[in-house]
Design brief:
This is Phosphatidylglycerol lysyltransferase C-terminal domain-containing protein. The protein contains 13 helices and 13 strands. The protein is α+β, with helices and mostly antiparallel strands and 481 residues long.
Length: 481
């Protein structure tokens, strides 16, 4: 006759079963793997004394590529294992002390000027948002105001300064840095537009009568509550990730690299090889690609962490770059890539690993980046005919660029709708000129000629306002704003 199980034994058995189940959660497994590789620093390095030589506003031009442009920063530390982004300070970056005074008159600096790079890092750490991924793109320049309290990240197309995101500063410094940049632009004959502006900066724009266009949303994961990470959803992602990490199956290993805790040139070279091979394959692939950013992944090490994967042969085959966002008290994951020939599911594993790492750091904000809307939302200060053309061109752009694939990829990781926020394009001078629109599309790697003429035809009445703008440009009437 079987012995009847006592209540105490049954309770103990249930407890052991629950503990065993808890230990199999992927978040715990990955957190343990990555936490063993992350130092627990006891002190931090204050870079507030780092300055830039010049007594006037200037630009920093990231023109140098290759190993020689990687800053040698070995003593800087993260602000602790538990997530801590320093509270924005109104203290300006201190006055010049670097040895690059010989370049001050040219107002152009490269990544070799460590003082300039660290000063930009300081502003990006305090005020960075998802749209500031351009800080890692060597094709962009930086403009910094005289007080050293604000910066703009921008690229010039056809005499249009395209600024990525909000000014890197407190809202109280918006007017100052914009006025100084306007003075700088006038000398060069540039107009201006902002891409990926936040609601905060857009409110400033509306108060000053700018044209604003809401084109997309920032999608955000919450590592503290995410259903995929907690295995309440995304079963395929979880099963596949566990198989990849299983030594008897795919035998993929995870690594963590934090440049601010000590530079490892071997790891950097490996990750650069992964990135270059991924870009080469991407560029050969058919299909339209928008919003292409070309990274120098290690140009600003104080902002970054990297999670990477290795195959059974010990060779790196994927990585995710995680950039600190001071304005959101969180991080942005981009790029998140797998090398050609890597096992299926590497990028999914990297996103899950990033959430697991931030979960252990008590971080509740992981941005996936831009997600363009199917149709333009709120538009202010555009005439009805121009607004109609703008909406029609955008609608066709959305269909041609296959943005729905990006939406589907984001959705499978269950973004937190309460943390997502709208993104805007801003035109300070009012309705955008044709030159500004063309620059915007070229920066986004989109052919406006194919979009417009394929949709409306060369003689469409809807194109008359655009043709008038072209004629104005030909006659020299389209002046920079």
């Amino acid at each position: 006759m079987p012995t009847k199980e006592t209540g105490e034994k049954r309770c103990k058995r249930c407890t052991l079963k629950q503990e065993a189940t808890k230990k199999t959660l992927l978040v715990d497994e990955i957190s343990e793997i990555l936490s063993r590789q992350l130092d627990y620093p006891t002190n931090t390095v204050d870079i507030s004394s780092v300055s830039i030589s010049s007594g006037s506003s200037y630009t920093l031009h990231d023109a140098v590529q290759g190993e020689e442009c990687v800053p040698r920063i070995k003593s800087a530390k993260l602000h602790g294992w538990r997530h801590s982004v320093s509270t924005p300070s109104k203290q300006p970056i201190s006055r010049p002390t670097s040895q690059s005074t010989r370049q001050a008159s040219a107002a152009i600096f490269t990544l070799e000027d460590l003082a300039a790079v660290r000063a930009i890092e300081k502003l990006a750490t305090r005020y960075g948002r998802v749209s500031h991924m351009s800080v890692l793109d060597p094709r962009y320049k930086f403009f910094v105001n005289r007080a050293r309290t604000a910066a703009l990240s921008f690229k010039v197309h056809n005499k249009v300064a395209l600024v990525m995101g909000d000014p890197l500063c407190e809202p109280g410094w918006f007017a100052n840095v914009l006025a100084e940049f306007k003075e700088y632009r006038r000398r060069l004959g540039w107009s201006i537009a902002f891409i990926g502006a936040s609601e905060v900066f857009t409110e400033y724009a509306k108060e000053h009568g700018w044209t604003t266009i809401q084109f997309g949303t920032e999608r955000v994961l919450n590592p503290m509550t995410n259903d995929v990470l907690n295995e309440r959803a995304g079963k395929r992602i979880i099963v596949q990730s566990k198989q990849l990490l299983n030594p008897s199956k795919a035998n993929i290993s995870l690594g963590l690299y934090v440049p601010a805790q000590g530079e490892d040139l071997d790891v950097q070279r490996e990750l650069v090889r992964v990135y270059d091979s991924w870009r080469e394959k991407r560029n050969r692939a058919a299909g339209a690609k928008a919003f292409i950013t070309v990274y120098d992944p290690f140009s600003m090490p104080a902002l970054m962490m990297y999670i990477y994967t290795r195959g059974p042969d010990g060779v790196a085959n994927g990585f995710a770059a995680i950039r600190r966002l001071g304005a959101n008290q969180g991080y942005h994951i981009d790029p998140c890539i797998a090398a050609p020939g890597a096992p299926r599911g590497i990028t999914d594993l990297l996103i899950v690993a990033a959430m697991a790492l931030l979960h252990s750091m008590r971080v509740s904000y992981l941005s996936l980046g831009f997600e363009p809307s199917e149709t333009l939302a709120d538009i202010t200060r555009l005439s009805p005919p121009i607004e109609k053309i703008t909406r029609a061109i955008y609608k066709r752009t959305f269909k041609q660029m296959l943005f729905q694939g990006k939406q589907m990829f984001h959705e499978k990781f269950k973004p937190d709708g309460s943390q997502g926020s709208p993104l805007f394009v801003l035109f300070p001078a009012g309705a955008p000129s044709l030159r500004q629109l063309v620059a915007l599309y070229r920066m986004s790697n989109i052919s406006i000629r194919k979009l417009v003429f394929a949709r409306f035809g060369k003689n469409s009445d809807m194109l008359m306002p655009v043709k008038q703008k072209i004629e104005e440009q030909r006659l020299g009437m389209d002046r920079p704003k």
